[in-house]
Automatic annotation (TrEMBL):
The organism of origin for this protein: Lysobacter antibioticus
Keyword flag DNA-binding: yes
Pfam family, one: Response_reg
Gene Ontology biological process terms in this record: phosphorelay signal transduction system; regulation of DNA-templated transcription
Taxonomic lineage of the native organism: Bacteria, Pseudomonadati, Pseudomonadota, Gammaproteobacteria, Lysobacterales
Modified residues (4-aspartylphosphate): 54
Domain Response regulatory: 3-119
CDD domains in the record: LuxR_C_like (cd06170), REC_DesR-like (cd19930)
Protein name: Bacterial regulatory, luxR family protein
The keyword DNA repair appears for this protein: no
């Protein structure tokens, strides 16, 4: 039996996925979570075989959750099921140790089979996304990504510096680098372009 934790912030989608997957003879949804922080607490509590998570969730993204699981040394494997069919997201997910990446419009049978494949130690990646991921290089460093994400959330240079323990000059340098790499005229345009490409 595959013990599955389901992390999805949309209650209706989460309920439908749980009902669908519980129909499978070898899959049991042992916990559900509506945000990333609750998912992490549930992972520690129930130690599931697999986590099936969305990317964008309140508190902690699915990619952040995958990094925590990877860094904890747990044997739990992570599968992302999302509407975000962008190569940048897939690359970041793979770097975080994610073993499966599927789109929400995938057929139900394909989803269950992907979970089985990952449980057996394999990978399950949407093939079209896989091709695009290796031809669409993410230009940002991790620190540039952090600074740009906070700038896009409306934080000032001083607030970003305080949050990341950086001087305001260093924050400005990171923002300038990111704006230049993304061929943008300001931080908001750079943030928007990075989001569109799945780099944030």
């Amino acid at each position: 039996m595959i013990r599955l934790l389901l992390a999805e912030d949309q209650a209706l989608v989460r309920g439908a996925l749980a009902a669908l997957l519980n129909l499978e003879p070898d899959i049991e949804v042992v916990a559900e979570a509506g945000d990333g922080a609750a998912a992490w607490e549930a992972v520690k509590r129930v130690q599931p075989d697999l986590i099936m998570t969305d990317i964008e969730m309140p508190g902690m993204t699915g990619i952040d959750l995958a990094m925590r699981v990877r860094d904890s040394g747990m044997s739990t494997r992570v599968v992302i099921v999302t509407t975000f069919g962008r190569a940048g997201y897939l690359r970041r997910a793979m770097d975080a140790g994610v073993r499966g990446y599927l789109l929400k419009d995938a057929p139900a049978g394909q989803l269950a089979e992907a979970l089985r494949q990952v449980h057996r130690g394999g990978r399950a990646i949407d093939p079209q996304l896989a091709v695009a991921a290796w031809s669409d290089e993410d230009p940002l460093t991790e620190r540039e990504r952090q600074v740009l994400r906070l700038a896009g959330e409306g934080l000032s240079t001083a607030e970003i510096g305080e949050r990341l323990h950086l001087s305001q000059g260093t924050v400005r340098n990171y923002l300038s680098e990111a704006i230049g790499k993304l061929d943008s005229s300001n931080r908001i345009e750079a943030y928007r372009r990075a989001r569109q490409n799945g780099w944030l």
